[in-house]
C-alpha cells in the first residue's frame, strides 16, 4: 500500500468501532476519525471516542454536531423513551432513525475533502440489535450510491465502505482487537452510561459486550455502576 493512504473511520467510542480503527491502522491507513454529537443520552461515548482515537494514533479527530434529538424517535435521543433492559423482538426502540445513513454521508463528504477513497464503519450482522442499517445489503447499497453521488466517484475514484466486523461474533471481535493492542478499558458501549462512563450492565449493548468478553475468554475491563 502506498504511503499516506487516507481513510475516514467512524468512531463512536465503543468496542466495535475501536476495533475497526485498530484494523485500519494495521492495514497502513492514515486514520481520520469522525464522531458525532447527535443529541445522544450516553454522551460519555464522545470522551471515549477521543481517548481511543488518540491511543491508536489517529491523524485528526473530528466531532460533528448534529441534532437528531430534534426529531426523536429513539430511546437514545429521547429521554422520554426508556432504554429497554430486557430482550425484545423486532427492531428495538434504541434504533436511531437513519443514523448510519446520516453518519456515512458526513463521512463521505469529509473523505472527498481529504482525498480519501476509504471509509470504515463498525457495523455487525452477527452480534447486533436488529438494526436495519447494520446489514451487508445496506453497506453494499450505500457504497454503490457513494460512487454515483460524488465528484470523486464520477472522476473515477473507487470509493469503498469497509465493514470488517460484519461477519464476526463479539468474542471474535474482542480477540482480534486484543491482538492489535486495543485497550478496551478506554471504550464505552452502554446505552445509558453515566457521565463518568460507568455502564449499567443491563441494556442490550451491555449484555452483548459482557457476553463477548466471556466468549473471548478474557477479563471484562468494563466499569459498571454499583448494584
From TrEMBL:
Catalyzes the ATP-dependent conversion of 7-carboxy-7-deazaguanine (CDG) to 7-cyano-7-deazaguanine (preQ(0)). Zn(2+) binds at residues 190, 200, 203, 206. Its EC number is 6.3.4.20. This is 7-cyano-7-deazaguanine synthase. It comes from Parahaliea mediterranea. The keyword Amino-acid biosynthesis does not apply. The keyword Ligase applies. GO terms for biological process: tRNA queuosine(34) biosynthetic process. Signal peptide: none annotated. It catalyses: 7-carboxy-7-carbaguanine + NH4(+) + 2 ATP = 7-cyano-7-carbaguanine + 2 AMP + 2 diphosphate + 2 H(+).
